[in-house]
């Protein structure tokens, strides 16, 4: 999980059988121990709540890209609230298709430096 590391990973998920080994580590079949929710399970959102969730998703993606990780499977089902509380932290999950890339700085037309994958 980008930004969260392995802190609490084994406390939250039970790792089952190994599914495969790849360039980025080992993939396990895992089940959640906690009572988290995927974004779509919460149903309808107010405009303010939807904006907050969207802001968090963009921040997670920015953090991953800053660290050279491209998720490549972004969809609502791959974002999980830590628990069922209204204020629960949002986590990105399922990095099975992710790849590492080297971020490089480029200059935009406005003169501002931005990060871009190479």
UniProtKB/TrEMBL annotation:
<keyword id="KW-0723">Serine/threonine-protein kinase</keyword>
<dbReference type="GO" id="GO:0016301">
    <property type="term" value="F:kinase activity"/>
</dbReference>
<dbReference type="InterPro" id="IPR000719">
    <property type="entry name" value="Prot_kinase_dom"/>
</dbReference>
<keyword id="KW-0067">ATP-binding</keyword>
<dbReference type="InterPro" id="IPR050205">
    <property type="entry name" value="CDPK_Ser/Thr_kinases"/>
</dbReference>
<keyword id="KW-0547">Nucleotide-binding</keyword>
<dbReference type="InterPro" id="IPR011009">
    <property type="entry name" value="Kinase-like_dom_sf"/>
</dbReference>
<comment type="similarity">
    <text>Belongs to the protein kinase superfamily. CAMK Ser/Thr protein kinase family. CaMK subfamily.</text>
</comment>
<keyword id="KW-0808">Transferase</keyword>
<feature type="domain" description="Protein kinase">
    <location>
        <begin position="1"/>
        <end position="118"/>
    </location>
</feature>
<dbReference type="Pfam" id="PF00069">
    <property type="entry name" value="Pkinase"/>
</dbReference>
<protein>
    <submittedName>
        <fullName>Calcium-dependent protein kinase</fullName>
    </submittedName>
</protein>
<keyword id="KW-0418">Kinase</keyword>
<dbReference type="InterPro" id="IPR008271">
    <property type="entry name" value="Ser/Thr_kinase_AS"/>
</dbReference>
């Amino acid at each position: 999980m980008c930004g969260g590391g392995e802190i609490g990973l084994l406390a939250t998920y039970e790792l089952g059988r190994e599914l495969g080994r790849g360039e980025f580590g080992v993939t396990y079949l895992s089940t959640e121990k906690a009572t988290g929710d995927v974004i779509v399970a919460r149903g309808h959102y107010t405009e303010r709540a939807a904006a907050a969730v969207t802001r968090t998703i963009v921040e997670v993606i920015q953090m991953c890209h800053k660290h050279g990780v491209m998720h490549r499977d972004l969809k609502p089902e791959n974002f999980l609230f830590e628990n069922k509380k209204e204020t629960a932290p949002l986590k990105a999950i399922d990095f099975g298709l992710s790849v590492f890339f080297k971020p490089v700085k480029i200059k935009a037309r406005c003169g501002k430096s931005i990060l871009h994958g190479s």
